[in-house]
Amino acid sequence: MVIKKKYFRDPIHGFIEVSGCALEIIDSPYFQRLRRIKQLGFAYYVYHGAEHSRFGHSLGTYHLAKRIVNKLLPSNEKELKEEFCLAALLHDIGHHPLSHSFESILTSKEKENKQKQKQAKHENYTEAIIGKTLVGGCIEKHNLNKNNVIKLIKGKYLEKEEYAYLNSLITSELDLDRLDYLQRDAYYCGVTYGKIDFDRMIISLEPENGEIIVNEKGIETVEMYILSRFYMYTQVYLHHTSRAFDIMLKEVFKNVNFDELNYPKPTEEDIERIINYDDLWLTKQIMRLSRTNHSLETLLASNILARNPLRWVVRMRAFANAQTLETDPDYSNIVNLENDFEDIAKRAGIETETLFIDGLFKDLPFQNKYRPYTSSEGEKVIKVRIGDQIQDIALNPSSLVFYLAKRIAQAVRIYTLQDNREIVVKTIRDKYPNLKQYVWQIEKDQ
Fold this sequence. Notes:
Layout: E1 5-10, E2 14-19, H1 20-26, H2 29-32, H3 54-72, H4 78-90, H5 100-112, H6 122-132, H7 134-141, H8 146-154, H9 166-170, H10 176-189, H11 198-204, E3 205-208, E4 211-214, H12 219-237, H13 240-252, H14 258-261, H15 279-289, H16 296-305, E5 311-321, H17 329-335, H18 341-348, E6 355-358, E7 383-386, E8 389-392, H19 400-404, E9 407-416, H20 421-431
Parallel strand pairs: 4-7
Antiparallel strand pairs: 1-2, 3-4, 5-9, 6-9, 7-8
């Protein structure tokens, strides 16, 4: 019997070979939908090359999974190998239009409506697609276990304890997801921050006692990975213009009735409709909302379509002490400007609703999931082997991460409409002269 194979030419990994169940899933409408979901949301408004999709990233993660399981798992664990690779392939299949940009709106609506059952996250949709659609049927048709695939994605696979370390390769601070998207996003954005030595990283990973350990030769590779992650967050993922459009999108949908929007829910009765909800659908909604009335939401919807972002008037990045959480007083003063928006607007002669704050981003290089300086039981920290000892890399004084972990990088920005920018800048400069160095310079657009 000839097994059908297909090769995808990938700019990051070269040729990616796919066959069997994975190929059938890729050809399904659920996976093909990922071609119509941008990986980085509004980042393409800043980096014009960032038009890449969740489709390519999912393929890349699948490719890395094949490489790592062929190294770590014995040949007789064929089913587990396939289930793990499918988990890597499907980990993002439930993503919403424009990825995280629209997801934040759905989660905010959930909080506003005080829904007890939280279902808005893309992980909920991923689980529903695998468990309740033909995707799960395809997995079972190939004599594989769809529940194992779901557990691996959620980091809760415990069926074979000796292979529990596979959980951290899908969901942790050093996982295949990040190893692909950091390099992929850097490539398409045309920046050099996301460079990672894939080959060295993969050969440096070793399983031990249900965990993945990085051997001593891989420490510098991990350091490069963490630095890459830090700079990709500060320079790409949290770029002030991209974040401006995220804020605008949230404002546009602030008063939208989501029952009328009829966005599918991750239920057995509703999940099949998700195949029609992609970036094209969301763009049509923005176009519709841009024609409704003369409200601020209508203006912002029109400005999204015209690529006319909110303009920053004050911005700052600071490094807080990781233990005491003390930060630069100026940073706190900028954060507290939000409490003075009404007075600033009155002095500037504008509407308070046209002032926006973006923050706080806590711990840019590690995010909230990984706090190596306060590592607690259950956190999936990055462990390295030093001689005959195994420890959190952030607790190793010989590693650069030891010093990075002592600080929390944070960023805050205040935005307004383009037409209001100069008067708001003048108002803030006059009222808060001590913050002058963080305020946009009218005579020199930065």
